[in-house]
Amino acid sequence: MKRFALIVALLVATGATAQQKAQSGPGAMLRGLDKVSGQTVDVEMRNGQTLPVFGLDVALGDCRYPADNPTGDAFAYLTIWEKGRTDQLFDGWMIATSPALNALDHARYDVWVMRCITASGD
């Protein structure tokens, strides 16, 4: 029930409606932050790919964006865990314009979605 309420809140916050169609992109651009050193890194990922971001492993399930506005809000399904560990730190949808609504909770690292990679390569 908590997830359902979160999804409804996310849709309302981003202005999405039932009439708005989402399209899956082939991947996403993510940004990672090491809060201790202040270093950031941008990572381009394909759907189904897992890549290291600092001390974390990040898997991208899907990245969706409004079909009528490819540069609009990106929704990415991410699974994140610490390297060498099996327990997940994050597993769910993250929204580019509102990353704090469903954010990674880690003491040292932060990861968020910047945008989807569109079929046209934008």
Describe the protein in words.
- There is one protein chain.
- By secondary structure, this protein is mainly beta.
- It has one domain.
- Helix content is 11%, strand content 48%.
- Strands 1, 4, 5, 6 and 7 form a five-stranded antiparallel sheet that branches. A three-stranded antiparallel sheet has the order 3-2-8, with no helix packed on it.
- Strand 6 and strand 7 form a beta hairpin.
- The termini are far apart.
- The mean pLDDT is 86.
Short description:
The chain is built from 1 helix and 8 strands; from the N terminus they run αββββββββ.
Topology:
Elements: H1 2-14, E1 22-25, E2 27-34, E3 40-46, E4 50-53, E5 56-66, E6 75-82, E7 88-95, E8 109-117
Key traits:
single chain; 122 residues; mainly beta; five-stranded antiparallel beta sheet; three-stranded antiparallel beta sheet; 1 helix; 11% helix; signal; DUF2155
What's the average pLDDT? 86
Largest sheet: 5 strands, antiparallel
Gap between N and C termini: 36 Å
Beta content: over 45%
Say how many strands there are. 8
